Amino acid sequence: MYEIYETKERIIEDNDAVAARVRAKMKAAGVFFVNLMASPGAGKTTLLKRTIESLPELKIGVMEADVDSDVDAATLAETGAKVIQLHTGGLCHMDADMTLRGLERFGTEGLDLVFLENVGNLVCPAEFDVGADLNVMILSVPEGDDKPLKYPLMFTVSQAALISKMDVAPVFDFDLDRFRANIAPLNPDMAVIPLSSVTGEGFDAWLEYLKGRLSEA
Amino acid sequence: MYEIYETKERIIEDNDAVAARVRAKMKAAGVFFVNLMASPGAGKTTLLKRTIESLPELKIGVMEADVDSDVDAATLAETGAKVIQLHTGGLCHMDADMTLRGLERFGTEGLDLVFLENVGNLVCPAEFDVGADLNVMILSVPEGDDKPLKYPLMFTVSQAALISKMDVAPVFDFDLDRFRANIAPLNPDMAVIPLSSVTGEGFDAWLEYLKGRLSEA
């Protein structure tokens, strides 16, 4: 089971100041907070499902942010993870204030790791620091290797790019070297992890990366 | 060659009133205006390229709206169509005022048909009437047949849904009947046209649909 919570947007003066409060709150609680961003259909929910199932040693919570549905929360609740559905009331992103209120409503006691599945969109979510310890984006193979040229901010604010749906790479013209060349001027330190949530290819590298960041926190 | 024009957003009181001005202006000029919306990587530019090449009898113009790149304008300029690149300055959508100023800058004299390739996004572009005669959205097969549940407004304001990348349908679990069932409560009259801009499958149906709407205008 999971709750549906209408976050809506409040006019706030300083998103970054609220993001800093989120970060301090989560640090004090000993919870690692990951903001997951991607286009619609890139595979955020499927990735989260397999990630949760692959890490039974961790207590994981998921805040699902959507415009106004709860399809993904229902899917993730099946894993047994603690899940809340946030509704943005039409907005295309979460900001720090909405995130803070979502976390307060959710309750993070006893959790090791919380994922925010942001609204499906490569533009607006990149513009708002939500106070996460780690920003991860997913780009699916069918979307194409030129996306850093078109959505540069997303590839600048994220520390890792997961290239999803690698199982269908043979039928698409996605060139990992060309993708890396496109992100190099934006974010030379970006981790690039090709994987498939269906076959599990590359998933160990993602889990190792995530656990590495968690252990450094 | 094509120009790059920074549209930016002005604070305007009534988007719908400006949209009505766009519609009146285009009607007076005898130009049919199509607003094309989709997620990043759904295949908007590839579809436009094949559409332009398939309709040599029509004089077609394209206004490419992007956050701040001009990758797609360069691709479309190769077709010989009249092309302008609009930059939204970080915004995730075009509104009616930005569209009106874009059209004035572009110049539609002598054109039969103008496409606006909206910013890649299933949320914000749906919220702003840009004054088009026809709103068309593309959903690519890899994005999944559940998207109407998650982005209902986009499937409500568009008159047609083009299901792109049908050539890769065999490797994805996309069910056209399930998709139609998902849009039925939102938009029972929506035209659903499965196609592939690579193989040309279904393209005749799309061209017939487009020419039909054009002849009614």
How would you describe what is shown here?
With 217 residues, chain A is α/β, with parallel strands linked by helices. The first copy, chain A, has a single domain, classed as P-loop containing nucleotide triphosphate hydrolases (Rossmann fold, 3-Layer(aba) Sandwich). The first copy, chain A, has eight helices and eight strands, in the order E-H-E-H-E-H-E-H-E-E-H-H-E-H-E-H. The first copy, chain A, has an eight-stranded parallel sheet with strand order 1-4-3-5-2-6-7-8, with helices on both faces. In chain A, helix 1 runs parallel beside helix 4. The longest helix of chain A has 15 residues. Chain A is globular.
What would a concise description of this structure say?
The structure is a homodimer of 217-residue chains. Chain A is an alpha/beta fold and 217 residues long.
